[in-house]
What does this fold into?
Amino acid sequence: MRVLLVEDARDLADATQTRLRQSGIACDVAETVADASDHLSVQRYDAVILDINLPDGTGTGLLRTMRNAGRSEPVIMLTAQFSVDDKLSAFGLGADDYLVKPFDHRELEARLHVLRRRESSDRSGEIVLGALTYNPTAGTVTIAGQPLDLTRREFSLLGTLMRGRGQVFSKERLIEDLYAFTDADVGVNAIELYVARLRKKLAGSGVEIRTLRGLGYRLDDA
It folds into this structure.
């Protein structure tokens, strides 16, 4: 999962970005409406976390611009004070959820996963394929009930493949899902390495990562 955090309070932004990364969620940070617009012009996101008060405008103004442009990314609004009128205004513009500062990062993660489920055909917290069970909210993967030890990158990669099972993902698309702009330069070799490691760990699960030469990877029920 890759998200955009639009927040001008640097300490909060850094703490949130760090926590999301630890959970395997790639997070780009923008401090202004202009920066956020630049990010949105070049990158697709699974969700946007949007502060209301920004140095060069408002989050609600940016939300209005996004929706008018036909962008449908789920949006969580952030604010220190959120009145009923603020909520109704934000929802009327197309917001999907809101959080009042200060917030628990665990709640933010849970809400991001809920929004991701709304966008997919998997309405429950778990995705099951063969003997493999993936639970993004709990952060667990099991094979026939036995816990599978994955790194955060491997966990994120598996999540992308399981949500899009049967679809072909190019290496470039997987890089977009797993890495933020501020991550060190990442090449396709990194994706090949993670796929190779994950493929070995999935042995005996009844699930296989297939390589389609020149196209990318696809997760299949073996």
Observations:
- The chain has two domains: 2-118, 127-221.
- The helical segments are 10-22, 33-42, 59-68, 84-93, 105-118, 152-163, 171-178, 188-201.
- The first helix runs from residue 10 to 22.
- The radius of gyration is 18 Å.
